[in-house]
Design the sequence.
């Protein structure tokens, strides 16, 4: 069964639903005393009874809790994407959550046409996607000022570059990867060099002759890496 609700404010045997989730309860015509199922985004699933349904808050009496990561990827996939228009980023975030990505880095690049990201909008978009797909692990989100800040030792950088000579289907991907995708217009050459230099293991690949949009590239490579 899909998890319809999300809550990360849990105190002992009570869960406090925020304005967004309370509104969702009301849209679903939930009443006092009804049972609901939700996740905390950390791999746990809860069942509880609605004790209070206020204007901007709902209180849930927890009746059981269990760990459930059965729908989560066994591979570790991280996405590092150049800041772009929200209509594009929102699709990337939504699909990344649905596909089980563990971390999403939003990076300011020279060709970024937006210089700041509203992390509240990011969280709300991710929350809706997590509930829709029945996932139990919320990705970590970071806003960074340069691609090199996204590197973590032990996680292999995968650089998407339409001019690369190696096609995605010729690569055997490691268990832990961080996929670097440029903003609209792509990475500048010095940014490409920066990503190439952050690790001797960096893999530079192309998705083919067509120039794909940010969100399309992300969907293709996330699906490919997760299934390969």
Sequence:
């Amino acid at each position: 069964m899909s998890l319809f609700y999300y809550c990360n404010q849990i105190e002992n045997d009570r869960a406090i639903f925020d304005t967004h989730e309370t509104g969702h309860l009301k849209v679903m015509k939930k009443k006092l005393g009804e049972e609901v199922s939700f996740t905390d985004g950390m791999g746990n699933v809860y069942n509880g009874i609605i004790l209070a349904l206020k204007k901007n808050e709902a209180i849930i009496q927890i009746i059981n809790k269990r760990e459930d990561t059965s729908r989560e990827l066994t591979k570790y996939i991280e996405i590092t994407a150049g800041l772009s228009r929200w209509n594009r980023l929102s699709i990337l975030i939504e699909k990344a959550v649905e596909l089980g990505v563990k971390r999403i880095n939003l990076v300011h690049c020279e060709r970024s046409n937006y210089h700041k990201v509203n992390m509240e909008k990011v969280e709300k978009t991710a929350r809706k996607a997590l509930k829709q797909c029945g996932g139990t692990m919320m990705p970590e989100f970071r806003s960074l000022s340069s691609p090199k800040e996204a590197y973590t030792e032990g996680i292999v950088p995968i650089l998407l570059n339409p001019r690369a000579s190696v096609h995605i289907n010729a690569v055997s991907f490691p268990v832990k990867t961080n996929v670097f995708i440029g903003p609209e217009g792509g990475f500048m050459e010095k940014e490409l060099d920066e990503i190439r230099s952050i690790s001797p293991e960096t893999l530079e690949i192309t998705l083919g002759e067509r120039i794909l949009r940010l969100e399309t590239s992300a969907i293709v490579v996330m699906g490919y890496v997760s299934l390969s």
The CA atoms of residues 124 and 214 lie 20 Å apart. The first strand starts at residue 5 and ends at 6. The chain has two domains: 5-67, 76-227. The radius of gyration is 19 Å.
